[in-house]
Amino acid sequence: MAALLALSLGGFGIGSTEFVAMGLLPELAIDLLPGIHAQNTDVAIAQAGWLITAYALGVVVGAPTIAAFAARVPRRTLLLWLAAAFTLGTIASATLPTFETVLAARFVAALPHGAYFGVAALVAADLMGPGKRGQGVALVLSGLTVAAVIGVPVITWVGQNHGWRPAYLLVAALFAATFVAIRVLVPWQAGDPTSTVRSELSAFARPQVWISLGVGAIGFGGFFAMYTYIAPMVTELNGLAAGVVPIILITTGVAMTIGNLVGGRLADGGTVRAIFQGFAALIGSLLLLALVGGTVAGLFVATFIVGFAAATVSPIIQTRLMDVAGRSQTLAAALNHSALNLGNAIGAFLGGLVVAAGWGYLAPAWVGLALALGGAALAVVSVAMEGRGVTTT
Question: H helices of the chain, where?
Fold first, then answer.
């Protein structure tokens, strides 16, 4: 259990570094884009959202690259290197002076993200034992969702009251603590001695892998289209004080924590049925947000349900990828985070477009609804192909 907590601490740090920008977009826009902010607040906030897109794209690039080349490295050793890289990348993000350099630092800091979760999920699955793979994945991801409950609101408060740079230095301290915890608590595990770059990359020859990636990237993009702009939904749309932002982040994070654990259990009962259950809930909740998010009560209720529904989908998609990837388990476990963060990039970018166009802060919820419907449609395609025997080649 101590080893699982150490792995989850890394997830806590990753969740903090990934999501805290969403609560600090106004502060990032003011500090890094002062000229644009003085002319048009909405455009500055939308452009600050590029920092989230840059991080997401770093995950997309780093996850398959590191997983393919490092699958043979002992797992604890690899996790330590990744924790060190997170620490240095986050320090750079907090200290570089301009929007362009911070943008580049966010991309670099994200490179270890997918590989960390992929390797940590494999370690957790081995520690949990047979028949509990989905729950092992969910336990590692629980650090990310608990970050949404505790880490993101606390660090958002720090950023609002003391500046976004000290907030990111606090995140760097979390990664340094993760390095120590892994070194002390996680047992040594060998990598895959039979793995080669070619064997890991062979997963990309499987149509079902590509479709499953599309399900995650497009479908989960629906959540990020909404979540990226949650701060201005609170302050600009509903006219509430900035201090309410951490509160709504906490309620959404609680929902994500519950949903993640539910999703792990659903995945162990069969990923096909589970994925449709998750997407049905996500589609319904985004529609609810688009309709009632302009009221305070509606915003709190709808974002809670969206967070729950989206979090159920994550461990289900990761387990599905591991099911269809054959021998490429390290790559498959990491690719889930490429998919979800491609969804982060897509959702943040498209949500920013409609905000910058002046369509209002509920427009990202409608974008999210369209993306979630697209993910569900791809899931239908995947199941139909599987029914015709298209699983591995």
Answer: 2-23, 25-32, 34-39, 41-48, 50-70, 75-95, 99-110, 113-128, 133-146, 152-162, 164-185, 197-201, 207-227, 230-232, 244-268, 271-292, 296-324, 329-356, 363-387
Output the CA torsion sign for 333, 279, 50, 241.
Answer: negative
User: Could you tell me if 216 and 340 are in contact, meaning their C-beta atoms sit under 8 angstroms apart?
Assistant: yes
pLDDT at 392: 44
pLDDT of 221 higher than 80: yes
Q: What is the pTM of this model?
A: 0.74
CB neighbours of residue 309 within 10 Å: 27
Integer Cα distance of 112 and 115 in angstroms:
5
Residue 123 CA to residue 136 CA, distance in Å, equals 9
For 272-315, what is each residue's pLDDT tens digit?
888 899 999 999 999 999 999 999 999 999 999 999 999 898 88
Report the candidate in 328, 390, 377, 337 with the shortest Cα–Cα distance to residue 68: 328
Q: Which structure tokens are listed for 252?
A: 């959404």
In angstroms, the CA 141 to CA 307 distance is: 14
In this prediction, residue 329 carries a pLDDT of 66
Query: Rounded to 5 degrees, what are φ and ψ at 261?
Result: -65, -40
Torsion 377-136-117-252 (CA) sign: positive
Sign of the four-CA dihedral 260, 261, 267, 273: negative
**329-350 pLDDT tens trace:** 667 767 777 787 788 778 888 9
Is the pLDDT assigned to residue 89 strictly greater than 50? yes
CA separation, residue 286 to residues 22, 307, 329, 339, 362 (Å): 18, 10, 32, 20, 10
CA proximity to 148, closest of 50, 228, 255, 8: 255
- Per-residue pLDDT tens digits for 160-201: 888 889 999 999 999 999 999 999 998 887 766 766 677 677
